[in-house]
Structures are given as C-alpha cells and as structure tokens.
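S.,

Sequence below, as promised.
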Amino acid sequence: MTNKRVALVLGSGGARGLAHIGAIEALEERGYTITSIAGCSMGSIIAGMYAAGQLQEAKKWFLQVDKQLILRMMDINLLSHNSLVKGARIIKELQTIVPDRPIEQLNIPCAIVATDILHTEQVIFRTGSLFEAVRASISIPLFFEPVALGDRLLVDGGILNPLPLDIVQRQDGDILVAVDISGKDGLPFGRKLNFVSILDRMSDLQIQQNTLLSLRLTPPDIHAVMRQYAYTTFDFDKAETIIAEGKRIMNEALDAYEATH
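The prediction came back faster than expected:
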C-alpha cells in the first residue's frame, strides 16, 4: 500500500469525542497524513485544534479537566428561556489553547457543521471565525444557548449530520476515514427510564440513525467506531481512558483495512 493520504471525519458525541485525539495519534503513528478534516459538535473542537496544529496542547488541557473545572466552565443562563448554559466560558477556555483564527487560514482544509433550526438545514463553515463555528456546532439544544448568525439560529450539527462524511474536502485518491463515536448500541441492561432519560434516549436514537444514513450515503474506506454508551456526554474527567480507546478503535480499523489493501 502506497497511498496514506487521509480525509478525516470526526463525529459528534460529547466527551466521547476525546477519542478523536487517540484516533489521530494512531493514524500519524502508522504513517498516514491527514490532508483535510471535518467535524461536528465535539468533533468540531478536535478538528479545529488539529487543523490549527495544536492537538497536543489540546490533549494536555483535556487531561487536566476534572469535575470541578467542568462546573466552573458552566456559565449558567438564569435569565434565558431557551438554554441552561451560555457557552461563552467554554469557548474562552478553548481560546487559551488556540487563539481564534479564520478557518481558511488553518494548516489544512477544515469544515465544521452546525444546524440552522429556523431554516431546517445544515450550515457548513469553511471560512470565518473558527470559534464562532465551533460555538455553533457544539450547541446542544436546551443545554447551550443557540448562536444567532444573521437570519439563522444555529445549534449542534449532530442534529442533522452527526458524521459529516459528505462535507470533508477530499482530494482524488484520498482515503476517507470516519471516527464514529455514536455506534449503534442498546441501553445497559437494567437501566431505569424516567422522563429525562427517555428524552435523552430519543436524541441518541436520532443521532444513531442519522449516523447510519451518513455511512450508507457516503461509505468511508476506514470506519473506526465506538459504542454510543461506552461513555456519557459529560465524562470529560475520563479523558485518558477515552483517548486510549480512540487509539485502540483506530488501530483495529487500520488493521482491517491494511489486511485487504
């Protein structure tokens, strides 16, 4: 096998998105070159950090995150009728790792997807402020305050396109690689359901089905997948374990690919 140029797609999934760091490390350790990248929600954060050349700085920051830091970053939105958290404090923390830059000036082509809930369509950022795009892409409905941009109201890209295989800027011959952190999974046996958990389950099923649709419409050459219930959305204090799992699933996917190519 001679071609190791990769167009990389990073899916949505909250703290499970830390697996993207390990997946990227596995690709690079095995000699693959990432020539373009696309991300959604948590995948947009890692995509932006990588395209800015700051992935190791991001990894170092995430490894020191604990529950206390998570709470300090939650700028509760007491006066809002549409969200629990403003989200500005999280973006400010991320900018301590990477100062805001135009997406078109990053090291490699980068695309970030959000959802416009007024016009019922996805919005793809390939230019403009990196952190404006990330802020929109991570805006979990009812949790983070939506982002108003012109006549659009933007929320989490995972609502419509949790694994944006169709938007990465792929060159002829590039291997299309997906890191899917919302793999089809059943509820843990014995888990009790209440009003909140049923709503959460409905969201999970939507993400799973949209991910499966993306995979059918734009099949990747390499598909690294993590079960949706391997970790929760807010398990950011488990960064070391999740990053290691990302490396494991990518190495497993690469083994399968290289065995036939």
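Residues 37 and 110 are 5 Å apart (CA to CA).

Coffee later?
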